[in-house]
Amino acid sequence: MAEMTYHRFGRTDLQLSRVGLGAGGPSRLGTSQGADEASVEALIGRARDLGINHIDTARAYGTEAAIGRALKRLDAPHMMVATKVHWFDGNEPDDTSGGDRDPLDLVREVEASLADLGRDHIEIFQFHAVLPDQLSYVVDRLLPVAHRLQQQGKIGHIGITEDPSVDHRQQMAQAAVKSGHFDTLMVQYSILDQVADGDTFAATQQHDVGVFCMSAARAAFTDTESLHVALQRFGDSEPALLEKLIDGGTVADFAFRFAAAQSAIDVVLVGTGRQQHLRASTAAILSSPLPSDQLSWLRQRYGKADGHTLWLEWK
Length: 315
Hints:
Layout: E1 6-8, E2 15-17, E3 19-22, H1 37-49, E4 54-56, H2 64-73, E5 80-85, H3 105-117, E6 122-127, H4 135-151, E7 155-161, H5 171-179, E8 184-188, H6 199-207, E9 210-214, H7 224-234, H8 239-246, H9 251-260, E10 267-271, H10 275-286, H11 292-302, H12 307-310
Parallel strand pairs: 3-4, 3-10, 4-5, 5-6, 6-7, 7-8, 8-9, 9-10
Antiparallel strand pairs: 1-2
Helix pairs in contact: 1-2, 2-3, 5-6, 9-10
């Protein structure tokens, strides 16, 4: 396997490994399938050994405390952590007011993350799954609180993540980057969601925003059966053409290689609870890029697909 590479993460100037360990998704470091803390520790230890130097988590994932204890036992204070707070109830586009919550509740959320992680500083703090109509509330009401936490040294850089299940065209992501308020952005990018290739990545490059790629190989790219269902939804009646490109490899590894070919992406996140899967996914991301003719074909054939196509459970 090729050695890990490290990249300047936009204007944060953090040097992050090309691969990041994701603590969310269906697996949540394996805890959603019953993994104990010894297994979580072993997984994070394997990530460290592979050269991965950061973990992405969130309050909503329920994995912060396990990560904190694992990092302490592994004596790995150098591993950076990005976490998130989901402010709005549900993922409804008309939920724009923040409900009855006081913006100062954000302080309690961050303090809880710090306590669970066993740290006094979070390298990257993100507003989680924000929708287009919610962005103004985040900027006007929550960002001033986050800036005070930043001045106190409790959080480092401030970022934001999209919700591809609702905001299929990444309107929030593009507006957030262009606002100049956010140092980092997390977006979905996949063979079956190439929306970011347009205005999103143009904006992140212009504003020097660090980019996390989520969901490169989830959902439709879990296995061949799921891929067939997604391709059918997209309207591709010839799935064998894509399978021919995969050429006996795994669907997931092929999808990771596609995402890794996009130079506007700084970090490709891998969410898993299995050490073997983490190693294989890391190897795929760090491997030689897909041939240019294959990339051109994938972009031409699936370039109009968006988040609605990728996620089989979203109707």
